[in-house]
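Thread amino acids onto this structure.
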């Protein structure tokens, strides 16, 4: 693994067991997360973002299975990297890493909390387990954490139940719980999707602060490129279980090369557009089901640049446009060939 890389996914394949038949869901994705950086995984609903994030912590449900690939993690302790794929699914090692070194937050904060216990008891329990702290120490640390994530009057909030929190507060509470063990990586799966715009901006600001102040590395999953611009350093665009374009945010936004990326960017609302009452560009058609995966480039039925007998014949290979910019599209392979002639 390269020096500052802490999590590296290599050629990861995931399949769905459907009545004994293996249906591909994720088809050989590669990405790297560097220390202190935010990598965004972006794509429309159904493209495999959540399945990928579950696989990272070996949390896939029984019907989904990693069939090949590597998930290499470099712990902060300087020991040799560990390949999560090689670990027993519910073994001691991966359970130690989950929540301790890598924490996860979701769209739905209630899945992180029991309705029966106070927020303080639930976060305190995590702290006591991992830091072997006393009850009083854990409570004090919980109040500190609640304060850190911007929960007003944390000394009172610590004794409240999840149902007494608003949606935005629960989201902050879940982030506090995720931070309780001081993880080095946070995986955030659509953490702001269910929130209204104002609260969404506040939660994004909180995550941005965690990155800036604490150097937290994050895998940030979203279907919304508008959010990516606000938080990520690097972005990987996913379509039907493949990464179709990848690079630094500035490069991908300024110089998008895959027709799918271009469509996603065109679909971001801009201030001027709304006042001008211009219709938002949306992407023609919808993501096909796993059982009707188009042959070749899976995006070809929706693509304005579709080339017959090429795009529908085989998946496009990876083209490196520059040391920092990769794309999987025949348009670029053709351009590369021409340049070589
Ligand atoms: N437990 C499951 N059983 C069957 N199909 C699933 C399961 N989880 C996800 N899928 C399918 O896998 C694909 C990717 O899903 P997902 O990762 O949830 O997409 P995203 O998070 O990008 O919206 C979708 O077609 C979805 O229907
Ligand atoms: Mg999802």
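Threaded sequence (341 positions):
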């Amino acid at each position: 693994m390269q020096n500052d890389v802490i999590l590296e996914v290599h050629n990861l394949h995931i399949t769905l067991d459907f009545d004994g038949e293996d249906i591909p869901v994720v088809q050989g994705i590669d990405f790297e997360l560097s220390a202190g950086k935010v990598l965004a995984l972006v794509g429309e609903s159904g493209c495999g973002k959540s399945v990928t994030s579950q696989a990272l912590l070996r949390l896939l449900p029984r019907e989904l299975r990693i069939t090949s690939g590597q998930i290499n993690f470099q712990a902060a302790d300087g020991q040799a990297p560990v390949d999560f794929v090689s670990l027993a699914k519910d073994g001691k090692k991966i359970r130690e890493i989950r929540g301790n070194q890598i924490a996860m937050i979701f769209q739905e904060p209630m899945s992180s909390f029991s309705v029966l216990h106070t927020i303080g008891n639930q976060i305190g329990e995590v702290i006591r387990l991992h830091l072997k702290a006393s009850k009083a120490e854990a409570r004090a640390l919980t109040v500190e954490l609640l304060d850190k994530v911007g929960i007003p009057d944390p000394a009172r909030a610590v004794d409240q139940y999840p149902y007494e929190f608003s949606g935005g507060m629960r989201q902050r509470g879940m982030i506090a719980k995720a931070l309780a063990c001081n993880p080095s990586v946070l995986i955030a799966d659509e953490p702001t999707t269910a929130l209204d715009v104002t609260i969404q901006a506040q939660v994004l600001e909180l995550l941005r602060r965690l990155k800036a102040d604490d150097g937290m590395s994050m895998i940030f999953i979203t279907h919304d490129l508008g959010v990516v611009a606000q938080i990520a350093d690097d972005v990987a665009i996913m379509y039907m279980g493949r990464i179709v374009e990848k690079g630094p945010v500035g490069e991908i936004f300024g110089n998008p090369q895959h027709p799918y990326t271009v469509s996603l960017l065109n679909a971001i609302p801009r201030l001027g557009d709304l006042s001008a009452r211009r219709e938002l560009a949306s992407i023609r058609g919808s993501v096909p089901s796993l059982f009707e995966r188009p042959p070749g480039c899976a995006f070809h039925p929706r693509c304005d640049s579709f080339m017959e007998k090429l795009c529908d014949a085989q998946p496009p290979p990876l083209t490196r446009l520059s040391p920092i910019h990769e794309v999987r599209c025949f348009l670029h392979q053709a351009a590369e060939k021409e340049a070589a002639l």
